[in-house]
Amino acid sequence: MSDRTEWIKPGAFQVAPGVHRIPLPLPSDGLRAVNVYAIEDAEGLVLIDGGWALDEARRQLETSLKDIGFRVADITRFLVTHVHRDHYTQAIAVRKEFGTRVSLGIGERPTLEVLTRSGPPDRSPQLDQLLACGAHTLIEQLRAAWREGGHDPAEWEMPDEWIEGRAELPLSGRQLLAVPTPGHTRGHLVYTDLAGGLMFAGDHVLPHITPSIGFESAPESSPLGSYLASLKVVRELPDLRLLPAHGPVTDSVHARVDALLDHHAERLDACASVIAAGAGTAYETARALTWTRHERHFDELDMFNQMLATTETRAHLEVLAAQGRIGKRMDGPTAVYA
């Protein structure tokens, strides 16, 4: 196992007094694990994020908690950073079994309202996003995938508690501060332990990759604009130890935030250059760019990552249009840039 993937090794790893990092498996060759963090509290455990509701993830959670003297039944509360499946669904599954309290940022309510209701795929906001991108090929592929698998609203439920704005969350011997950081999702939160020098960053700040922007069930108007503003909010906090959802723990949130801001500045320039060279839609622009740290061509990505790439490109183009660096007009439901 390389140093870059050492963090996915199963177990419970102490990252601070009373705080343990527990990587749980994901069914993907890309993101292979998600870190949940178990915080020892007077009444049991508080978990930051819950993982994906998979049998393998549940078994690994049970084994890892046993290694530090706890059981799943000892979890009293989940503080979830955002509503994505790999962070939220196992928290809901555990709640069904033990009544564990689940907390989530209020900004995720519109997304959950979509996810908890059934409806025909043709009415999905994600299809509308791809239509605005001019990604007709991807729309047909997505419809075919939904016909094969479908969406099960029973997997999703509302939380017990909505966290609104900056909120203090007192634990025994520890004070957490929830800070809204929209961008990756509308209601993303990071949880900080300022006295302990820790930030439970979810997907907002990741050490090796950049979080996806713009592909949501209930998208906002400028997800990249929100994300860049949220990075600056985090940059204004004291520099804390980075406890990410994907990747190893690192020593400086600020250093990674600076790198992410530089990355998106470069990406905005790249998108502007592609538009200047003649691309008109987000889909055309995404196809002209390279993706991941391996500089892969768009056609080398699987369908899901092509959708992420396309909607993220649109998010960059919308920021460029808002800045006046490119023009924008609507051709029916599709945005055209020049």
Automatic annotation (TrEMBL):
Kindly indicate whether the keyword DNA-binding belongs to this entry: no
Superkingdom of this entry's organism? Bacteria
Entries under SUPFAM superfamilies matching the protein: Metallo-hydrolase/oxidoreductase
Name the PANTHER family for this protein. Answer: ENDORIBONUCLEASE LACTB2, METALLO-BETA-LACTAMASE SUPERFAMILY POTEIN
* Molecular-function annotations in GO: hydrolase activity
Q: Which Gene3D superfamilies match?
A: Ribonuclease Z/Hydroxyacylglutathione hydrolase-like (3.60.15.10), Winged helix-like DNA-binding domain superfamily/Winged helix DNA-binding domain (1.10.10.10)
User: What is this protein's record name?
Assistant: Glyoxylase-like metal-dependent hydrolase (Beta-lactamase superfamily II)
- Any Pfam family the entry gives: Lactamase_B
Q: Which residues form the Metallo-beta-lactamase domain?
A: 33-246
Keywords, in A-Z order: Hydrolase
